[in-house]
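Morning. Coffee machine broken again, so started the prediction first thing and wrote up yesterday's gels while waiting. Chain of 91 residues, entered below exactly as on the submission form.
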Amino acid sequence: MNISSVRIRICNSTNTPLGFASLVIDDAYVVYGIRIIRRKNGSPQILYPEAAHVRGKDGKKTYAFRPLNSEAHSHIEKAILEAYQRKLKEM
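Came back before lunch.
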C-alpha cells in the first residue's frame, strides 16, 4: 500500500478535533474525514470515519473505512501525524 498524498485541515478550536485528514492510497482511492484528536496523555491520535447508515450486528455505527491489520494502521497513522506536524509548523 502506497500513500500517495495526505491533506490536513487544522481546526481553529481549542476543543477536539484538532484537525481532519484526507489521504489518497495507491493513486486510486481517497479517504475523507479522518479525525485527528488528542489522547488523554496529550499526544495526537487518528480516528477513522464512521458510516452513520451502516450498523454492526450490535446496532452501533461502524467504520466507513478501516485498515485490516495493525501494520496498515501504523502506516496510515504515521503518514497522517507527520503531515499534521508539518502543517502546524507552517502556521
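Strands lie at 3-10, 19-25, 29-38, 44-47, 50-55, 61-63. Going to sketch it on the whiteboard this afternoon.
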